């Protein structure tokens, strides 16, 4: 069991989903209890993981690898798809974040009353796929989880959403599907270009089934590969991340070989592949100008789905940038630092201005997410230790904060079904506790020191400043983002919460203060953002060694 | 004492206010009665600790590791030296007096616990700024001080104007802070740290052009906090907060943090940066002084005056003479806090007991002749006003002199054009004397202009005692033996040795001051002194929001921002989204064309595919009845085809 702890993390929600789907009883309470139990188990497993995770180890930990599909296909070599899971300092914080956010999501799903069986089955399916995405160490497996995430998300928005849910769901789906199509193309090209040196060694016969791997073996095989000593039929093609990241495993003369001379139009194939992957993940993050699905999806999605969407789904974009885009195309990433960081800067400023212009609370928060995710892109594109660590930190911080913000929006929406900022005034008079927690969430999100938002912004900006390749004006202009954040959060706060109490509609009596469940859900998140803000070492100790090794591997 | 001995005071000075903040905040309304005393007691304890550990001759640094990433390691570090020593005394003393005063001033407010809690939060962050050894640590507390200022300006949250003013203060400060942060991060890039001690050794390695840019970025922080042009608009509006808060935060301590920052970083300011700083300070000083001569609100006169005096300190820092700037900061802290507390006492006295009477207790046009009813307040106010106006024998005279002398010495080094700065300072000192005379006359002299239902009464001892203490501290004796020579013990304490004592400077400055007072006095003799009667009649037009927009930075920031926001929103909706939508529409049309081709050309194949999909779709429908099964199948089929393709190839 302990050897397959990561599998367990994926299997629990998937089994839960199956259990919900076939459960004989028709009482809706049962489904949500199954979902809750599954998520509680997830939390317990991740606590165990946290305790057994070694911060000092920069490599992959708790790896599980087994052959999944192996097929000889003649002159094209041998197809090898592995079931490979592992965590390292880059993915582990995001796995923990996923568990926290999804747990919060299931509790806030408590008052979903329609079609509960389908809802909780899809929710658990989503849970398993999201966590699978962060754990997968094989591109094929990753892609499978990545695609499987879209479907439950589509249904969750399209069936339990607001009035324009079908439009929003379709938009979400088409955008993301377009992105994943680009990823798929590059994935196939990568697959055709890369071999698995260990499996190849076995096929060639210099490594027996039971032999231990000699440290000189991989360089030897790679040398053979360069010399053309291995027949094409004996090459074992792979999707494994570890092999894709090593330029020595690329077949000379193949499509994506580092020395590849192939051009499409006037663009080298590798550069084109880099941009394809980038756009694929940029849709997810999202980066301006491929962000317009996000506000619509958020506005229409029910509260828990918004929480999960902003809290964890967007982070797969950032994770993809680090692990896949920069990991497999480091030369291209260094070559394109300036355009990428400019895109980050534009997202920060553009998202901020748009947030300032919204009158729908959820849209405001959605655009603020665009702005905050811009910091992630800025930090990653800088390719410095501060920038990458800061970007991971910012993702975790934003995960916690956006979950809080959407839960708070849900509180208001549950009571009045009205999210227009201008329809409320002086809420502090009737909802004092709600006002205080919203205040904390707003100030934490606008980057007040002492909360996690500050550290994320500080380090992504610092990373961009530290990078020798980036001109100073890019991060300097990005600081406009923190001014805008103060403006849109405080302006919203002022409009909705202060002054004399007033509500546009008659039924103002429904505006009651937070219930015990809501408070109990929000306070742990408040605690998390303060904890991370004061002791950022909790995360940085985890990510630091891995990022350092990752950066050294890049050069 | 060794450095490690300073761990304890660092913990106590920061920890006590923070703990009391939490305690009072969570304590709820039950502890309203006690809250003030708890706060005052803790602040008194802080005062004693800062006195006990005062060791101005030596520099003591306490460090803690916070984060280490890559080549960057960040320490939380605090320092104790001469500057901290004085600032700690000033902050604690004023805070103690203000808290005592507040207990009487706000005695019937129902959120008293919150008020004193926020004051403690303010103290925590202000002391953090004072103790900060690195600029990053200072920035952290800098932001927190902004938070406490926000909370205290907006303390009466049911007043829309107060909340608006609080938000405006925070956002305008944020603009300066963004520049401050940029400066800090540039230091991290060029030097690798923001630690002041390290920086003071390493600045030589940076090229002057970059150092100028860094210096100006850091000055951005000062522009926000110390209300310098063009980020100054928030300070007059911040007067919406309770008056003791204005005294503590927006006159004596927080707004002086910018000057404190300039004093800390004076070694890295290049001559170019200093010139810009001096120019910005001059603009602020003049606009503040001119605005103050026209204002009718008793607190806003003082706010503009604060702005003007902060401008003066910034100019002094621009001269490179941060010691004189710091000198003026200290004297200003006492007499301006005294003025605000006295103004609060006036407001307290003229507030009608019946709440429903339409009467603005802050409007000087409806005051007049109050010296008989409020003798103690009158004396305190006049002493502090004399100090502000720069009359001999008061502290303001000394510190202003020191700045003007520094200005002449600086100009002598740089050339004829630079004499503009000290001359403008003398002129603005004249304006100061003018508007303070005007204010004293409008409030305390002349005929009674207030309504019959106002019954002015002297404030209780808990209020006038702090005022009296601050007035006493506005006398020259605390700063120099000789009332006409600024280079007394204060300046030698901060290590300032004036090379030449310019005897004629106090004479000229004194003459200008007396001339202005004379001019103001002539005005008093006229029929309509200071247009008080004319203005009274058209006061109706200046209500509502207009007065707020009077002098705000809407023209610089808010209007352009809202304009950009509006157009970007339209752009996002009509261009980016529309582009995406039109692509989507085009694809649909394209899809129709393809489907037409499909129907007519490959009908048979399509039909069979559709049949399969439908079959599969029906299976999926048992799970769900949306429209997306086809996508589900497409994806699954895609994966299947991929494998198939790989296998077949």
Automatic annotation (TrEMBL), chain A:
Organism: Dyadobacter flavalbus
Family: Belongs to the complex I subunit 4 family.
Phylogenetic lineage: Bacteria, Pseudomonadati, Bacteroidota, Cytophagia, Cytophagales
This protein's GO CC annotations: endomembrane system; membrane
Transmembrane segments: 31-53, 92-112, 119-137, 143-160, 172-194, 272-294, 306-325, 337-357, 364-385, 391-413, 434-452, 472-491, 521-540
Gene Ontology BP, a term: ATP synthesis coupled electron transport
Residues of the NADH:quinone oxidoreductase/Mrp antiporter transmembrane domain: 136-192, 266-474
InterPro entries according to UniProt: NADH_Q_OxRdtase_chainM/4, NADH_UbQ_OxRdtase, ND/Mrp_TM
UniProt entry keywords in alphabetical sequence: Membrane, Transmembrane, Transmembrane helix
Compartment annotation: Endomembrane system; Membrane
Membrane-related topology note: Multi-pass membrane protein
Domain of life: Bacteria
Protein name, UniProt field: NADH-quinone oxidoreductase subunit M
GO molecular function: NADH dehydrogenase (ubiquinone) activity; NADH dehydrogenase activity; ubiquinone binding
TrEMBL record, chain B:
First-listed, main subcellular location of the protein, grouped into a coarse class: membrane
Gene3D superfamilies, per the entry: 1.20.5.2700
UniProt domain NADH:quinone oxidoreductase/Mrp antiporter transmembrane: residue ranges: 132-418
Topology in membrane: Multi-pass membrane protein
Segments passing through the bilayer: 6-27, 34-54, 86-106, 115-132, 138-158, 170-192, 245-267, 273-290, 302-322, 373-396, 416-436, 461-481, 501-521, 631-648
GO cellular component, as recorded: endomembrane system; membrane
All residue ranges annotated as the NADH-Ubiquinone oxidoreductase (complex I) chain 5 N-terminal domain in the record: 66-116
GO biological process, one term: ATP synthesis coupled electron transport
This protein's record includes keyword Membrane: yes
Domain of life, source organism: Bacteria
InterPro entries: NADHpl_OxRdtase_5_subgr (IPR018393), ND/Mrp_TM (IPR001750), NU5C-like (IPR003945), Proton_antipo_N (IPR001516)
Gene Ontology MF annotations: NADH dehydrogenase (ubiquinone) activity; NADH dehydrogenase activity
Keywords: Membrane, Transmembrane, Transmembrane helix
Localization terms from the record: Endomembrane system; Membrane
Residues in coiled coil: none
NCBIfam families: NDH_I_L, PRK06590.1
Protein name, entry field: NADH-quinone oxidoreductase subunit L
Organism: Dyadobacter flavalbus
Gene that encodes the chain: nuoL
